[in-house]
Amino acid sequence: MKHRILLMALIIAALTYAQEDQKLDIPESAEVFLEEYTDEFQDTFFNALKQKGIQNYDRAINLFLACKQLNVANSVIDHELAKTYLLDKAFVSAQQYAVEALVGEPSNYWYLDTLEQILAKQSNAMDAVKNTIPYDNKELQKNLALIYFKRKKYDASLAVLKELPKSSFKEELQLKVEDSLAQLKKKVPETKSTGQIAVNNDPLQVLELNLEQQIKNEQFGLVALRAKDAVETYPLQPYFYYAYGLALHKTNKNGEAIEMLEASLDYLFDNITLANKIYKTLSDAYTTAGNYSKANEYLRKIKPGF
């Protein structure tokens, strides 16, 4: 009973956060009625959650797999495996179990949300798995439009909405997407070179310009929030990793800053100006951390004249 109360509390908390964040109705997450299962299943399941919580992902995965052997047809376990593999950056396995979970419960918002995260981490779109999931399910399509809206993928959200029949949900979300696009265009800051308002419909470039302005104004708390979201939405763009790393460094989260800044180098191609910014910030971060050898290493990488 204690286990069930704990799980239900977690589910309610997740639902409350999601509904407050999106201001739209979201289908309930799957509930695990643990009294239907054996003590062995319950103990294994909660031990797996515990191991995942302390970032012992290999152990958690093994325990979730043991749960599958005890109760194979359980999409909740598939979803937990997908989330744990995602945390462990094992994206292929994460995608496999996310698809299995969604096939088991096509209308489950959270299963689709996890699958979309996994695909984004691999720079893939939903088209990559369209033939392996029940995509024609209208609840699934509604959830997908909502997920894209939440992640500021407004054009993708509108494309999915076009496939849906007329409904109050469609009308409400379409208005929200169109309003967000209009607001985005209004927020384009002045360019440094001309002082004129930049006209650009690319949300990626608009976001980068806004972050540049906020960095200039030293609004690092705001930069951290927006850049973190940008990294999740555009996982191949090194500038957003740099902005997030810089903000973390400036807000005294030096260890996380170094990790994020070094991650940005994996996606950096032929952009010497941005490379210099990253190297300089890494040098500052390592100096703060007292690692002067690494600080000097990155300082020597800076190319003059850029």
Question: Can you walk through the features of this model?
Answer:
The chain is mainly α and 306 residues long. The chain folds into two domains: 2-135, Alpha Horseshoe (Serine Threonine Protein Phosphatase 5, Tetratricopeptide repeat); 203-301, Tetratricopeptide repeat domain (Serine Threonine Protein Phosphatase 5, Tetratricopeptide repeat), CATH 1.25.40. It is built from 15 helices and no strands. Helix 4 runs parallel beside helix 6, helix 6 (109-121) crosses helix 7 (138-150) and helix 12 (238-250) packs antiparallel against helix 13 (254-264).
In short:
This protein is an all-alpha fold and 306 residues long.
What's the topology here?
Elements: H1 2-22, H2 39-53, H3 57-70, H4 75-87, H5 91-104, H6 109-121, H7 138-150, H8 154-162, H9 168-186, H10 203-216, H11 220-233, H12 238-250, H13 254-264, H14 272-288, H15 292-301
Helix content: 55-70%
CA distance, first residue to last residue: 63 Å
Query: What is the count of structural domains?
Result: 2
The major pleated sheet works out as: none
Please, what is the CATH homologous superfamily of the largest domain? Tetratricopeptide repeat domain
| Alpha plus pi helix count | 15
Rg for CA atoms:
22 Å
Q: What is the element string, with H for helices and E for strands?
A: HHHHHHHHHHHHHHH
CATH architecture grouping of the largest domain: Alpha Horseshoe
Query: What fraction strand?
Result: under 5%
CATH topology of the largest domain: Serine Threonine Protein Phosphatase 5, Tetratricopeptide repeat
Q: What ranges have pLDDT less than 50 throughout 5 or more consecutive residues?
A: 1-33, 189-200
Average pLDDT for all residues: 82
- Category by helix and strand content: mainly alpha
CATH class of the largest domain: Mainly Alpha
* Count of beta strands: 0
Any idea what the shape is?
Answer: flat
